[in-house]
Amino acid sequence: MKLEEIIKAVTVNELIGSADRDITGIQIDSRLVGPGHLFVAIKGTQTDGHAYIQKAIENGACGIVCEQLPEEIRPEVTYIRLADTEGAVGKLATAFYGDPTSKLDLIGVTGTNGKTTIATLLYKMFRQFGYKVGLLSTVCNYIDDEAIPADHTTPDPITLNRLLGRMADEGCKYAFMEVSSHAIAQRRIAGLRFAGGIFTNITRDHLDYHKTFENYLKAKKAFFDNLPKSAFALTNLDDKNGKVMVQNTKARIAAYSLRTLCDFKGKVLEDGFDGMLLDINNREVNVRFIGRFNASNLLAVYGAACLLGKPSEEVLIALSTLCPVAGRFDALRSRRGYTAIVDYAHTPDALVNVLNAIHEVLRGQGRVITVVGAGGNRDKGKRPLMAQEAVKQSDKVIITSDNPRFEDPQDIINDMLAGLDKDDMKKVLSIVDRKEAIRTACMLAQPQDVVLIAGKGHENYQEIKGVKHHFDDKEIVNGIFADE
């Protein structure tokens, strides 16, 4: 594509050199630059791309987009100076990849918990309906049935547009996408046109990045503020910020709730470890999911599918066939008569939701043993809260390592223990080795008990000192069960 066509998407402050150049690729990482590429220098949180302009040129870049021109201006290179490269890169990538969201319906799911479940279930449901569909999620990205590993909840703008471009080229009618607060704040989704947005809930998370809960909420709300008039905004009225999210949106507003009369109303009629019977808009449906939080997720899926024009009867039938997402309330039954549940819950609120769901099913007929940790180099403020919530609703708690990253696992455990008093500590063990912690919990379990292993869910690694080591909670549990 010609450079002059790409830069029409942004306001150019200064152009040095010819815009009549063929661009073969666009990059924000100088190491990935090849011949004929356009390099966009961004001032990131870790490094400043302006320091790598010469490296990008050495690797073959023929165009440089920057906020500050380098000292050396090379005659064979075109320089485009903008006021804000971070805000522009998404628009440039959208232009380069042929504006993919003008060719498919992109639905974004944002909130603290439930994003992966809702986006993945919509992807599965619309494939069942016979459409080609794309998925952008924490667990894995898909272009119809082709799996593409995911490194971030929301990829960088160039990867994002490249994936969406491929989806459009391969005939995908819909794409469902998790939209993280980081992606909104860093404008990774700039240039994309959404056909709909779904709000799940908002509780404390990512304050290591956003600093305050108010900033975190503003980031989520900005997604809905920027939805076009043609889109829908589906919000959760059971969250106190559900109405706040959509108060300034131009999109048409719809709501779902387990408590209040609204567009998509649900109620849990029966529940067990094999599923629930739900009432959705006065129709009963059996689903293979557990817990009120999953009932809420399924309502969001139902509402979004209806808003996309699918008949409610078809949507209910599809809901009854769907299975839980990997690592989300994954229930495994031991031959000794207890149940182990592997779940991604890594925030205080997510932990409360999962423990509530377990108690709703147990009804006092068994104990709850919880294995939980907290990630390193992330919001330290939630560590004592995680421990408090686990102790509040468990008969025994084993505090262990999660992904310590570059922190000492024992320091993280100590931060969690700091939230507990002397009485709390009577039911707490701390075991740094996660495998040993899971094994100990299973040894302590009696028939009818539930062992909750929280925090890592679908992840098949443990990150220690910058290295990812193979580690899969579900694999560990199945190994323990095989030896029983």
Architecture overview:
The chain is of the alpha/beta class and 484 residues long. The protein folds into three domains: 3-97, MurE/MurF, N-terminal domain (Udp-n-acetylmuramoylalanyl-d-glutamate--2,6- Diaminopimelate Ligase, Chain: A, domain 1); 100-321, 3-Layer(aba) Sandwich (UDP-N-acetylmuramoyl-L-alanine:D-glutamate ligase), CATH 3.40.1190; 330-483, Alpha-Beta Complex (Protein-Tyrosine Phosphatase, Chain A), CATH 3.90.190.20. The strands form four sheets. The protein has an eleven-stranded mixed beta sheet, with helices on both faces. A six-stranded mixed beta sheet has the order 17-18-22-19-20-21, with helices on both faces. This is UDP-N-acetylmuramoyl-L-alanyl-D-glutamate--2,6-diaminopimelate ligase.
Descriptive labels:
single chain; 484 residues; alpha/beta; Udp-n-acetylmuramoylalanyl-d-glutamate--2,6- Diaminopimelate Ligase, Chain: A, domain 1; UDP-N-acetylmuramoyl-L-alanine:D-glutamate ligase; six-stranded mixed beta sheet; 17 helices
List strands and helices in order, with pairings.
Layout: H1 3-6, E1 14-16, E2 25-27, E3 37-40, H2 53-58, E4 63-66, E5 78-81, H3 85-96, E6 105-110, H4 115-128, E7 133-136, E8 140-143, E9 146-149, H5 157-169, E10 174-178, H6 181-185, E11 196-199, H7 207-210, H8 213-225, E12 232-236, H9 242-245, E13 252-257, E14 264-272, E15 275-280, E16 283-287, H10 292-307, H11 312-321, E17 330-333, E18 339-343, H12 348-362, E19 368-372, H13 382-392, E20 396-399, H14 409-417, H15 422-425, E21 428-430, H16 434-444, E22 450-454, E23 461-464, E24 467-470, H17 473-483
Parallel strand pairs: 2-3, 3-4, 4-5, 6-10, 6-11, 7-10, 11-12, 12-13, 13-14, 18-22, 19-20, 19-22, 20-21
Antiparallel strand pairs: 1-5, 7-8, 8-9, 14-15, 15-16, 17-18, 23-24
Helix pairs in contact: 3-5, 4-10, 10-11, 12-13, 13-14, 16-17
